[in-house]
Amino acid sequence: MSESYKDKKVITIGIVSELTGLSPRKIRYYEERKLIFPERTKQGTRKYSFSDIETLMEIADKIEDGVQTFEIRKEMLKKERDKMLEDKKKMIQGQLNAHFKIRKQ
Predict the structure, then answer these.
(1) How many domains does the chain have?
(2) Which of 27, 79, 90, 100 has the greatest number of beta carbons closer than 10 A?
(3) The domain containing residue 67 runs over which residues?
(4) Which parts of the sequence belong to the HTH merR-type domain (predicted)?
(5) What's residue 1's pLDDT?
(6) Assigned domain for 14 exists
(7) What is the CATH number of the domain that holds 19?
(8) What are the beta bridge partners of residue 11?
(9) Got the DSSP string for 42-89?
C-alpha cells in the first residue's frame, strides 16, 4: 500500500510558514519540543507533509488557548499509544478469527 499524498514529506519550511502563518523559528521550536517530525534531505533541508501542516495548525490553536507544549506532547503520546493498542487488538482478533475460522457476517 503506497503512502497517502497527505503523508509525503515534500513541503519546505518556507511554504509551511506561508500556509500556517507560523514563523520558521516557531516551526523549528515545535520540532525541538518533539511535536512535529520533518524529514531531512541530504543537504539538511526540512521537508513537511500536509499532515504535518494540519498538526502544526492544531498545535498553534492549542498554544493560543494556553496549553503548554509539554501538555500537547503528552496528549500526542497518549493518542499514539491508544492507536497502537487498538491496532494490536485488531491484529490479535484477526489472528483468533483466522485460527478458529470465524468469518464476519
Answers:
(1) 1
(2) 27
(3) 5-99
(4) 10-79
(5) 54
(6) yes
(7) 1.10.1660.10
(8) 48
(9) TT--EEE-HHHHHHHHHHHHHHHTT--HHHHHHHHHHHHHHHHHHHHH
105 pLDDT more than 80 = no
pLDDT digits (tens, 9 = 90+) for 68-87: 999 999 999 999 999 999 99
Residue 3: the pLDDT is 78
List, for residues 11-57, the tens digit of each pLDDT value.
999 999 999 999 999 999 999 999 999 999 999 999 999 999 999 99
Residue 27 identity (one-letter amino acid):
I
Q: Alpha-carbon distance 71 to 94, whole Å?
A: 35
Residues 57 and 46 sit within 8 Å (Cβ to Cβ) = no
CB 30 within 8 Å of CB 46: no
